[in-house]
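User: Predict the complex.
Assistant: Input components as received:
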Amino acid sequence: MSTHEVRLVWRDGREAVLSVAEGETVIDASERETLGVPYGCLYGACGTCTGRLLDGDLVHIERPRGLKPHHRRDGYVLLCVAEPRSDCRIEVGAEIQADLVPNPWK
Amino acid sequence: MSTDEPSETAEKHGHEHHEVEGPGYPTPAAMRTESEREKTAFVMGLRVGMDVDEPDFVGVVDVDPDSATYGELVDTVEMPNKGDELHHFGWNTCSSSCHAEGLTRDHLIVPGQRSSRIHIVDASDPREPEIETIIEPEEVFEHDLSAPHTVHCVPEGKIVISMLGNADGELPGGFLQLDQEDFSIDGHWEVDSGDMEMNYDYWYQPRHGVMLSTEWAAPETYYPGFDLDDVEAGKYGDSIHVWDWESKEHRQTLTFGEEGLIPLEIRMPHNPEETEGYVGAALSSNILRFWEADDGHWEWEKVIDVEDREHPDWDMPVPGLVTDILLSLDDQYMFFSNWLHGDVRMYDISDTGNPRLVDQCWVGGNFAERQSVGGHDVRGAPQMLQLSRDGRRLYWTTSLFSSWDNQFYPEMGEEGSLMMKADVYPGEGRMELDEEFVVDFGDAPGGPARAHEIRWPGGDCTSDVWQ
């Protein structure tokens, strides 16, 4: 069984390396290792688990409904429905989701 | 006698003159005058969208001023999973089943807005609530529903929950019915949903066989945060729906358009004779009144328009964002919050079509001068309201929804939100912030939390309906 090494990078400088097995989402693996990556609905609708892919090949196994096309172009991914296909580096943490929706009046 | 005693005995007080003893109170006035002061508050506490690796919880806050732990979060009932986003919740039974013997208001129905998981919490001892059973998301998805919101118990042994999406978090939503006895899922409540697609809150007036529901958006639209492009694309609601409570069929759609964008919380008077009510349109920041006309059709009008305000640091005028609204048990006063401005308003609604602003309390938000209370910075702004049964104390929390909090008040995502209170003087038509009362959920055990809906053991202004 192939596994991929996923490096998680938080904006406060913290980093962790995660071994993600085949058929496992990044959130499955981060929960297994109790790394505290945020999540919500677990089916790609809510965006709580938003990360940003910095390097590597990551695929969504379900449609990431919580992301708009421009978010996907900018590298945002929903980690509850994302499986690595190579070693990856991903920016994670609660702040990433907030990138998706700036204050529209400010 | 305290309404915080285990509820079977506590609520008998209102039933001394009745042959049948059911839960709740025979009339709104009985609840207002014969229950005692609230001593415990249940408050939804949540960690979703925060870097706090802990689950959400049902918080127990001591609101008994004679207690040594007054104003403190004295217990947290942690959920077994993370990521639920506890939001609104309700009772297994209320005054609408007042004449149903053998029912006791002793279980809280606590849904996860994002997870679609529904927790049943035994609250027969208000200071020691515990999880009794859980309906897992998969069981909810089987009925092609998701995103549970408003919980009302309804007569004939049922609980009905408004559901905002289908199993994929898309439209349409619907209503999920549970059995009051064993908390199993019966299926959909509605028989025919007409042109209703979006859902949010609902209220019903059983004496007139009517139910009204409101609209937020599809979960996949509002879950990730607020995007004005989605409003322009018509993905947010602007209508409410009238249902036949008996036949469970959709009857009429009231479309507000620009005057009523994102109609969220809906309230009808507690007096079961009334056939009117109010809904707060969050984005338009209007209060709309609706009523049943002589021919049985429902009509509406705008009765309050909260003016947008210019902010020196913002490019566009800032709407108030009316996110919660409630009516006192005597139906004399309406309170609502302007979450982006930072105020709670109190209106005299004795002339229902002409609400009269009598007082306003500014704290936090983007416009209040007062940005701290009792040494605590106010993170967020008045949002989810709850009034004491006697109408003399208005409590609120400051968080709206995790992703929307992170967008408008990001500090809540790091430090949690607050619960606050104003003393209300209904005889004088005014209210005053209680600077001594602040519950800072930033200090919650296990790490900062947001605080959302508030309820009292024994029922409250937004839980109980009368037949």
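The first helix of chain A runs from residue 26 to 32.
Let me know if you want any component modeled separately.
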